[in-house]
Amino acid sequence: MSTVRAVTPLDDHRVVAPHLPPLAVVPAADTPTLPSSVEPASRLPREWVEVHRVEVDGDTIDTLLIGPNGLFAVHFDEDPRPAAVRPGFGLIRAGTREPNPVKRALGNAEALRKRLAHLPGDLFPYPVLVTATTGEAGHRLGRLLVVRPGRLAEALWRHVSRPLRRSERDAVRKALVGMSSSR
After folding, report:
1. Is 8 left (phi over 0), alpha (psi -120 to 50) or beta?
2. Counting beta carbons within 10 angstroms of the beta carbon of residue 46, is it exposed (0 to 12), middle (13 to 18) or buried (19 or more)?
3. Please, are residues 26 and 11 in contact by the beta-carbon 8 Å criterion?
4. What is the pLDDT of residue 74?
5. Dist CA 68 CA 76 (whole Å)
6. pLDDT score for 157
7. Between the N and C ends of the chain, which has fewer C-beta atoms within 10 Å?
8. How high is the mean pLDDT in each 10-residue block of the chain (183 residues)?
9. Cβ–Cβ under 8 Å, residues 155 and 128
Protein backbone atom coordinates (compact mmCIF):
# COMPACT_ATOMS: atom_id res chain seq x y z
CA MET A 1 0.00 0.00 0.00
CA SER A 2 1.39 3.40 -0.93
CA THR A 3 1.47 6.41 1.36
CA VAL A 4 1.06 9.98 0.19
CA ARG A 5 2.59 12.95 1.93
CA ALA A 6 3.55 16.49 1.10
CA VAL A 7 7.25 17.04 0.61
CA THR A 8 9.27 19.80 2.13
CA PRO A 9 12.65 18.12 2.42
CA LEU A 10 13.48 15.53 -0.18
CA ASP A 11 14.84 12.68 1.88
CA ASP A 12 16.77 10.82 -0.80
CA HIS A 13 19.59 10.58 1.76
CA ARG A 14 18.12 7.26 2.90
CA VAL A 15 20.05 5.54 0.09
CA VAL A 16 23.33 6.50 1.70
CA ALA A 17 22.22 6.34 5.35
CA PRO A 18 18.84 4.63 5.71
CA HIS A 19 19.22 4.42 9.49
CA LEU A 20 19.31 8.22 9.89
CA PRO A 21 16.21 10.41 10.22
CA PRO A 22 15.44 12.98 7.48
CA LEU A 23 17.71 16.02 7.45
CA ALA A 24 14.90 18.35 8.44
CA VAL A 25 11.20 17.94 8.98
CA VAL A 26 9.31 21.18 8.53
CA PRO A 27 5.61 21.27 9.49
CA ALA A 28 3.39 22.32 6.59
CA ALA A 29 2.33 25.56 8.29
CA ASP A 30 5.89 26.76 8.89
CA THR A 31 8.12 28.55 6.44
CA PRO A 32 10.94 26.19 5.49
CA THR A 33 14.40 27.20 6.64
CA LEU A 34 17.56 25.48 5.54
CA PRO A 35 20.13 24.11 7.94
CA SER A 36 23.52 25.62 7.12
CA SER A 37 24.83 22.23 5.95
CA VAL A 38 22.08 21.75 3.32
CA GLU A 39 22.28 23.49 -0.03
CA PRO A 40 19.00 24.86 -1.47
CA ALA A 41 19.05 22.32 -4.34
CA SER A 42 18.42 19.52 -1.84
CA ARG A 43 14.80 20.58 -1.35
CA LEU A 44 11.63 20.64 -3.33
CA PRO A 45 8.89 23.21 -2.69
CA ARG A 46 5.62 22.50 -0.95
CA GLU A 47 3.64 21.87 -4.12
CA TRP A 48 5.58 18.65 -4.71
CA VAL A 49 4.05 15.43 -3.40
CA GLU A 50 6.00 12.28 -2.63
CA VAL A 51 4.29 8.88 -2.83
CA HIS A 52 6.23 5.91 -1.46
CA ARG A 53 6.06 2.30 -2.64
CA VAL A 54 3.70 2.48 -5.60
CA GLU A 55 2.88 -1.04 -6.80
CA VAL A 56 2.49 -1.55 -10.54
CA ASP A 57 2.31 -4.86 -12.38
CA GLY A 58 3.77 -6.89 -9.52
CA ASP A 59 6.76 -4.60 -8.91
CA THR A 60 7.23 -1.52 -6.76
CA ILE A 61 8.29 2.01 -7.67
CA ASP A 62 10.29 3.23 -4.67
CA THR A 63 9.09 6.84 -4.83
CA LEU A 64 6.81 8.75 -7.14
CA LEU A 65 7.35 12.52 -7.16
CA ILE A 66 4.50 14.66 -8.47
CA GLY A 67 5.20 18.34 -9.04
CA PRO A 68 5.06 21.26 -11.44
CA ASN A 69 8.09 19.94 -13.37
CA GLY A 70 6.39 16.60 -14.03
CA LEU A 71 5.78 13.12 -12.74
CA PHE A 72 8.93 11.16 -11.79
CA ALA A 73 9.15 7.42 -11.04
CA VAL A 74 12.23 7.16 -8.83
CA HIS A 75 14.11 3.93 -8.13
CA PHE A 76 16.91 3.70 -5.59
CA ASP A 77 19.66 1.26 -6.59
CA GLU A 78 20.56 -0.91 -3.62
CA ASP A 79 24.11 -1.64 -4.80
CA PRO A 80 26.48 0.81 -3.04
CA ARG A 81 29.35 0.27 -5.53
CA PRO A 82 29.85 3.14 -7.98
CA ALA A 83 28.75 2.47 -11.55
CA ALA A 84 29.97 3.97 -14.79
CA VAL A 85 27.15 5.12 -17.05
CA ARG A 86 27.75 4.34 -20.72
CA PRO A 87 25.08 5.23 -23.28
CA GLY A 88 24.39 2.17 -25.38
CA PHE A 89 25.75 -0.14 -22.68
CA GLY A 90 23.97 0.91 -19.47
CA LEU A 91 25.46 0.68 -16.01
CA ILE A 92 28.90 -0.89 -15.71
CA ARG A 93 30.11 -2.07 -12.27
CA ALA A 94 33.44 -3.81 -11.79
CA GLY A 95 33.65 -4.43 -15.54
CA THR A 96 30.22 -6.10 -15.69
CA ARG A 97 27.08 -4.71 -17.30
CA GLU A 98 24.19 -4.32 -14.82
CA PRO A 99 20.94 -4.26 -16.82
CA ASN A 100 18.49 -4.98 -13.98
CA PRO A 101 18.23 -1.53 -12.32
CA VAL A 102 17.88 0.14 -15.73
CA LYS A 103 15.25 -2.30 -17.00
CA ARG A 104 13.32 -2.12 -13.75
CA ALA A 105 13.20 1.69 -13.71
CA LEU A 106 12.18 1.94 -17.38
CA GLY A 107 9.66 -0.90 -17.19
CA ASN A 108 7.90 0.37 -14.08
CA ALA A 109 7.62 3.91 -15.45
CA GLU A 110 6.03 2.51 -18.61
CA ALA A 111 3.65 0.31 -16.59
CA LEU A 112 2.61 3.35 -14.53
CA ARG A 113 2.04 5.36 -17.70
CA LYS A 114 -0.35 2.68 -18.92
CA ARG A 115 -2.15 2.60 -15.55
CA LEU A 116 -2.64 6.38 -15.68
CA ALA A 117 -3.66 6.48 -19.37
CA HIS A 118 -7.33 7.02 -18.46
CA LEU A 119 -6.54 10.43 -16.93
CA PRO A 120 -6.91 13.59 -19.02
CA GLY A 121 -3.76 15.10 -20.46
CA ASP A 122 -0.63 13.41 -21.67
CA LEU A 123 0.90 12.12 -18.44
CA PHE A 124 4.35 10.64 -18.80
CA PRO A 125 6.17 9.40 -15.69
CA TYR A 126 9.84 10.14 -16.25
CA PRO A 127 12.03 7.26 -15.01
CA VAL A 128 14.83 8.18 -12.60
CA LEU A 129 17.49 5.88 -11.14
CA VAL A 130 19.35 7.09 -8.05
CA THR A 131 22.68 5.26 -7.83
CA ALA A 132 26.32 5.88 -7.00
CA THR A 133 28.05 6.83 -10.26
CA THR A 134 31.55 7.68 -11.40
CA GLY A 135 32.30 10.74 -13.49
CA GLU A 136 29.93 13.64 -13.87
CA ALA A 137 26.54 13.74 -12.18
CA GLY A 138 23.28 13.63 -14.11
CA HIS A 139 23.59 11.05 -16.86
CA ARG A 140 20.99 9.84 -19.35
CA LEU A 141 20.49 6.35 -20.66
CA GLY A 142 17.87 7.00 -23.31
CA ARG A 143 14.81 8.21 -21.38
CA LEU A 144 16.28 7.17 -18.02
CA LEU A 145 17.80 9.90 -15.88
CA VAL A 146 20.62 8.53 -13.69
CA VAL A 147 21.30 10.66 -10.62
CA ARG A 148 23.74 10.43 -7.71
CA PRO A 149 22.36 10.20 -4.16
CA GLY A 150 21.83 13.67 -2.74
CA ARG A 151 21.34 15.21 -6.21
CA LEU A 152 17.75 14.19 -6.91
CA ALA A 153 16.10 17.55 -6.23
CA GLU A 154 18.71 19.35 -8.32
CA ALA A 155 18.14 16.96 -11.23
CA LEU A 156 14.37 17.44 -11.05
CA TRP A 157 14.75 21.22 -11.09
CA ARG A 158 16.90 21.00 -14.22
CA HIS A 159 14.62 18.53 -15.99
CA VAL A 160 12.83 20.09 -18.95
CA SER A 161 9.36 18.68 -19.50
CA ARG A 162 5.78 19.72 -20.01
CA PRO A 163 4.64 21.37 -16.78
CA LEU A 164 1.83 19.63 -14.91
CA ARG A 165 -1.11 21.80 -13.98
CA ARG A 166 -2.39 21.58 -10.42
CA SER A 167 -5.53 19.78 -11.66
CA GLU A 168 -3.36 17.13 -13.35
CA ARG A 169 -1.28 16.65 -10.20
CA ASP A 170 -4.46 16.25 -8.14
CA ALA A 171 -5.85 13.72 -10.63
CA VAL A 172 -2.67 11.64 -10.37
CA ARG A 173 -2.81 11.68 -6.56
CA LYS A 174 -6.47 10.59 -6.59
CA ALA A 175 -5.74 7.83 -9.11
CA LEU A 176 -2.89 6.54 -6.93
CA VAL A 177 -5.13 6.46 -3.86
CA GLY A 178 -7.71 4.58 -5.96
CA MET A 179 -5.05 2.12 -7.13
CA SER A 180 -3.96 1.34 -3.58
CA SER A 181 -7.52 1.05 -2.20
CA SER A 182 -8.66 -1.29 -4.99
CA ARG A 183 -6.29 -4.06 -3.84
Report:
1. alpha
2. middle
3. no
4. 92
5. 22
6. 81
7. C
8. 43 36 33 32 71 86 88 88 80 80 90 88 87 74 85 83 86 80 53
9. yes
The radius of gyration of the chain's CA atoms, rounded to the nearest angstrom, is 16
Q: Yes or no: say if 109 and 126 are a contact pair by the CB < 8 Å rule.
A: yes
Is-contact 149 12, C-beta < 8 A? Answer: yes
Distances (CA, A) of 45 to 31, 48, 104, 110, 174: 11, 6, 28, 26, 20
Which residues sit opposite 90 in a β-bridge?
86
State residue 112's pLDDT score. 92
Single pTM value for the model: 0.71
For the stretch 91-100, contacts whose Cβ atoms lie closer than 8 Å and that sit 24 or more positions apart, written own/partner, are 91/131, 91/141, 91/146
Rounded to an integer, what distance in angstroms lies between the CA atom of residue 123 and that of residue 142? 18
Phi and psi, residue 105, nearest 5°:
-65, -45
**71 closest CA partner among 102, 103, 104, 49:** 49
According to the model, what pLDDT value does residue 33 have? 34
Residues 6+ apart with CB under 8 A from 84: 91, 92, 93, 133, 134, 135
Q: Residues for the chain: how many in total?
A: 183
Tell me what pLDDT residue 138 has: 66
